[in-house]
Amino acid sequence: MTDDHAADSRATATERAFIVSSSHLASPGHEDLSEFEFALTVVNHAFQRWVVRGMAAAGLPDLSPLDALVLHSANHRHRQKSISDLMFTLNLSERHSLNYAMKKLDRLGLIARRRDGKEVFVGTTDKGRAVCEEYARIRRICLLELIPPDRSPGGSRIGDVAKALRVLTGFYEQASRSASSL
Questions:
Q1: CA 5 centroid distance within chain
Q2: Is 11 within a domain?
Q3: Beta partners for 122?
Q4: Which of 44, 127, 140, 156 has its CA 20 to 30 Å from the CA of residue 36?
């Protein structure tokens, strides 16, 4: 083995390998974005699985992730929310998915809807609040116990990761608008 070949092998061995699911999307110079997208996909599925299993442990095994998120959002601060507020908060673009979730939650006696003129408001019932409290208890036991005391899994503070995700949301929203105008 020549000295040049050995140096090339060492350089290749020490370069950071990107973990991506679709190499054709790992554009040179932007491999980290493809790695982020793959991690986001994996964490999204894990989060949805946790929400479904957490709600099942709280006594509601038939809720979808969106059903659970709508319930928790409607319960937030124990104040009724308008449909537009729920859509905005959950970043939903299609009302029919929210309507479907609300019908299911209403049928289960977890939320109550009230009309005020043209606006519909949603809030949790006593049963809905109790389920949210039980989910929070299960979350403390099953999830929060796993979070390191320094709040920095993987070396990044959770709050900083959340801020970065909000910024990236804006990029993806703009890219969506751009793609729909092509």
A1: 46
A2: no
A3: 81, 113
A4: 140
